[in-house]
Structure formats: C-alpha cells, structure tokens
Amino acid sequence: MSLRTGPRRPESGPGRPYDRTVDVDVLTDPVEVLERAGPLLGADEARHNLAFGILSSARDQPDVYPELRGWIVTERSKVVGAAVQTPPSNLVLARPLVERALDELAEGIDGELPGVVGAVPEVDRFAQLWAARRGIGVETRFEQRIYALRRLHAPPRVEGAMRLAGPADRDLVLGWVVAFSREALHDDPADTGQLERSVDARLEGSETRGIVLWEAEGRPVALAAFGGPTPNGIRISFVYTPPEHRGRGYGSAVTAATSRLQLDRGRRFCFLYTDLANPTSNAIYLRIGYEPVCDSRELAFEPRPVPPAEPGPADSNRAAVWKPPARARPTGGFPRQGGSG
C-alpha cells in the first residue's frame, strides 16, 4: 500500500531551483519498501544493516512485525531518502543523498514518534528538525558503534563447543533474552510479546535466523543470535553470558562461532552493534576481527515543552535539547530500535 504526501510545491532560493519537485510516499508493504529503497540502503550496506534486517524480517515473517511503515523521499523520481518504523518502536533512518530529504521526512511523517535510531550525523539532524517543528526535547539514550566482520580472527580456545538452539531450548533462550534486555538495554518489558515472537522465529531453524548456544560441561553457558539478513551479510545480536559464567571467554567464543557459521554459509559480512559505554565488549569484537563502520545513536523524543531558543542564525536547531547517557550498559550486540530485525 502506498500513500503519497507530495509532490511538494516547487520552491526557489539558495540550493533549491524553482523546478525542483520532491515527493514523500508512505508504504506499508516491506517488499515495496525494499524494492524502492534498496539501492539507497545498498550504497552503504553496513550502515543500513538494521533497516535491511527489519524489512527482510517483515517480508519473510510478517508475524514478527504486525505493522510496518516506510517513507520514501524522491526528487525527480530518484530516491534520495528513506526511513522505516515498526510501531510502536523508534524510527530507523537511512543516510540521505541530499540533506533536504531529512526536512521532507520531518514534515511528511504524520503522528508521533517515540524516538529515532540512525548513524551519525544524519540522526542528529533529523532529531533537530523533528523537535524544532514540535517544540519538544531530545534525549540521547544510547551511543553505539556499528561493526562489520569480513575475516574472523579466532579467539583463544575455551572449554566447550557451539550448537544451534531448537524448540526444546525455548524457555532457556527466552529467559536469557529477557535478562539481556533488562541488563543491557534497561528495558523491563511487562509484555514480552515482541521478544517471544523474535525468539520463536529464530528457533524455527533457518539459514537467515537462529540462536547459537555455547555449551561447556554439557550445559549452555552463553548465547548469540543471528538474523536480519542484508543482501550480502547478516547481523549478530543478543550476545549474552549469564553472570555466573562470565570471565571465562564464553562470550567471545559464541560470538566467533556464530560469525564463522555465517561466513562459512557464504555471507560476505557479519554486522553487530556495540555500546560505546562498554569498552570491554568493543575490545573483544575488535580482537576477533570486527572493524568499525560508523557510530549510531538512539535519540528519544521528550513530550515536554522546551524553553524558547535565543534568537540567532541557528535557532531552528536549538529546540532540541540533548542529555548525555547516564548509565553504562554491561553488554552489547543489539541495536536499540525496539525489535530485533
């Protein structure tokens, strides 16, 4: 389904020729969003791995994301901007080809957004525009880094071996995923429906999504997940070791094993997100071959008035008030957008 908010009325002025026309289309079919936004996203596959993952998951398993909205910004029929949301989660933003595409998205998206996730600097610019139009504030929730792996560096050997999780592991896996969400993301979901759908989809067994357990002495001691495929890669997430098993290298082992599995299956890349407040996890991923791609932020929109900005040339940017992250998170590997992709 497609709803068009444009074309916009041609405007003149610096950088805006009179005959310029911009459209913003609202789509609800992930196949159509992928078809139209694919070239824009594919120009930087690692940067856009979260958007790719959400769209591919929504296409292949509609029950994981019952509702999806995508916005496509076109200038003279060329796609120059895009964003996707699975309500009530945050907006996931793509890097635009022209800065004006962010203005058009901020104007063309109807309703409210809880926040936005995207790479720096485009996520900051969109948040400024959105907040300025609505007179609200912006709070920085998470500072993250996107990594990509092309060639694995094997970590030191540790006791145990990997295996793929199956339906019989559901209670264990779901419990660890909920614990991960509470500990790493500071989410304490009363309704675990989204997490349950994500876990169930991965436990079905597939080349494109799954759960890997590391076992030592015959019992699981760590977990990692894979899913959200891109044209040439896949994302590693939910990297979790229960507190009683930490400090023994199990997290590195399960991450490396999951990444190797994907490369052996023909993926060119593996991607993951890390929490910049956690230097330990960043160092671990670097040691096994992950390389930084770009920084990413989750910004939350505050439903409260912001004091009027002082007059000045940059007053349109001053309506957005940033607060630095207040707490360090102990684990990483999961993008903060409200779903797993």
Give a brief rundown of this model.
The chain is an alpha+beta fold and 341 residues long. It contains eight helices and 13 strands.
Please trace the helix and strand order, writing H or E for each element: EEHHEEEHEHEEHHEEEHEHE
Instruction: Kindly report the average pLDDT value.
Output: 86
| Shape label | globular
Beta-strand content bin: 25-35%
Give the biggest sheet. Answer: 13 strands, mixed
Task: Report the helical percentage.
Answer: 25-40%
The secondary-structure class comes to alpha+beta
* Total count of strands: 13
Supply the number of helical segments: 8
As residue ranges, the low-confidence spans are 6-19, 311-334, 336-341
The radius of gyration computed from the alpha-carbon positions, rounded to a whole number of angstroms, is 21 Å
Major sheet: arrangement of strands: 1-2-3-4-5-6-13-7-12-11-10-9-8
For the terminal residues, how far apart are their CA atoms?
21 Å
Describe this structure in words.
- This protein is an alpha+beta fold.
- It is 28% helix and 27% strand.
- It has 8 helices and 13 strands.
- It has helices at residues 30-42, 49-60, 100-108, 122-134, 170-184, 193-203, 250-264, 279-287, and strands spanning 2-4, 22-27, 69-75, 78-85, 91-93, 115-119, 137-149, 161-164, 210-216, 219-227, 233-240, 269-275, 291-302.
- Strands 1-2-3-4-5-6-13-7-12-11-10-9-8 form a 13-stranded mixed beta sheet, sandwiched between helices.
- β3 (69-75) and β4 form a beta hairpin.
- α1 packs antiparallel against α2, α3 (100-108) crosses α4 (122-134) and α5 (170-184) packs across α6 (193-203).
- The protein is globular.
